[in-house]
Fold:
Amino acid sequence: MEFASISTALYPLAALACPVGMGAMMWFMMKGNRRGQKEDRQSPEPPAQPASAELLREEHRRLGEQIERLESQQDADPSQRR
Structure:
């Protein structure tokens, strides 16, 4: 008879194991997220330096030349038009 009473006592424990375990995992995960947020606040990233005007002008010139080259190729070969 003792075996029957022990097994009936284990059923509620088994039913509570999943929710209790899930709650513990959620608590540990939230605790870890808070720690990560504190570290992020303490070491902010330095702002990215903007590109210099000279670099932007050079990129603009290079892209303009590439556009002109592609347009001239399209004019020479009408089959590539969409």
In short: Residues 54 and 76 are 33 Å apart (CA to CA). The two ends are 86 Å apart (CA to CA). DSSP finds two helices and no strands in the chain. Residues 1-41 form one domain.
